[in-house]
Amino acid sequence: MLARKSIIPEEFGLPGLASRMPRKPVFRDRVNKARFIAKNGSCNLAHKNIREQGRFLQDVFTTLVDLKWRFTLVIFTTTFVSSWLLFAMSWWLVAFAHGDLDPLRQNGTHCVTDVKSFTSAFLFSIEVQVTIGFGGRMITEQCPTAITVLILQNIVGLIINAVMLGCIFMKTAQSNRRAETLIFSRHAVIAVRNNRLCFMIRIGDLRKSMIIGATVRLQVVRKTTTPEGEVIPIHQIDVQTESAVASNSLFLLAPLIICHVIDKNSPLYDLSAMELQCSDLEVIVILEGVVETTGITTQARTSYVSEEIQWGHRFVPIVTEEEGVYSVDYSKFGNTVRVATPRCSARELDEKPSILIQTLQKSELSHQNSLRKRNSMRRNNSMRKGAGSSGSLRRNNSGLAKVQFFAPTDGGQNLNGVT
């Protein structure tokens, strides 16, 4: 059976019309700009085309410490096994040169007793370097060369042990391990504090052992162009904080809010709320201090790009007093609340102080209106509940049936009816 041909021409059908309709442009997501410092503190920087690779070998110890754990363990194992094999070959050559490999030779004339093959020489090399004496193989006074090899292997073994074990110890006790418990707020905020626009972040320490002499440094990294036309891709600008002005260090016992007043010397002085979202800047936060338990200097880093700075927000309090003890609720560490904040820049706020007054007045009026609405809603709800209860009582009273009371008489059955 043949298919029935459509009456509408194909060019006017749905596929034909769809093919001829102009397509809307597809907007792709904007590629995120590479940040200089990641949120976990690692530097997002790749070193390429380094010609003088030999400089890394001049500082072997630091190179070994900076390597990843898998490479360090491979080098650790390879170094010890290679030294054992090298001195095993030396002991075998000493035994071969002295004729100890001859099975007819007496034990009293051997350089090393019970060294009859390369396997036994390898075992004796391990015993000498690791200072394990099983009692079966030992050096005699018949061969001064063997004594020289013994001294040489002991010195080389001590050097290898010192370097390798020191490298493992430094990798396990690195300062960045302590920085894992130093936390920063997920977002930074800009709000009014003491009638000034302030850039604020929150830092905290999860351990009870304190960071001695803790200091916080802020830097703004942005791409700038000099009047001469020179482009500086990573221009670092130091940002002053209130803690640095008041004292030299922080007492990081509980989470603190680090505040930077946006004044004339601040790189954020000319940025409004809208301009901040469109700007290409990154605020780097560096926390340094000495670990109380180990005495090692540690450093924790993070950064905030423009998308991670919330304008018109403030951190909620997380420290409370409970039964004579100060308690810190870390579940609210990064929580913020919206507050009244002018959307203009700090420069405009300094030039027109009335903007701040108007913003605060509007916020106060809106707060009062919300309170009035809330109170009126409560009154209405209470009145509705009261009206509902009185109506139910009326309905209950109206629903009562008429009751007749009968009294007995002499000649009749029904005399009076009372309702």
Automatic annotation (TrEMBL):
Pfam families registered for this protein in UniProt: IRK (PF01007), IRK_C (PF17655)
Low complexity bias locations: 378-396
Domain Potassium channel inwardly rectifying transmembrane: from-to ranges: 37-174
Membrane protein topology class: Multi-pass membrane protein
Parts of the chain that traverse the membrane: 71-94, 146-169
Keywords of the record: Ion channel, Ion transport, Membrane, Phosphoprotein, Potassium, Potassium transport, Transmembrane, Transmembrane helix, Transport, Voltage-gated channel
Catalytic activity from the UniProt record: K(+)(in) = K(+)(out)
Segments of this protein annotated with the region Disordered: 364-396
Subcellular location: Membrane
GO molecular function: ATP-activated inward rectifier potassium channel activity
Biological processes, Gene Ontology terms: nervous system development; potassium ion import across plasma membrane; regulation of monoatomic ion transmembrane transport
Annotated site, Role in the control of polyamine-mediated channel gating and in the blocking by intracellular magnesium, chain positions: 161
Record-annotated Inward rectifier potassium channel C-terminal domain positions: 182-352
Any one GO cellular component localisation term in the record: plasma membrane
Family in the record: Belongs to the inward rectifier-type potassium channel (TC 1.A.2.1) family.
Protein's recorded name: Potassium inwardly rectifying channel subfamily J member 8
Organism field: Acanthochromis polyacanthus (spiny chromis)
Lineage, top ranks: Eukaryota, Metazoa, Chordata, Craniata, Vertebrata
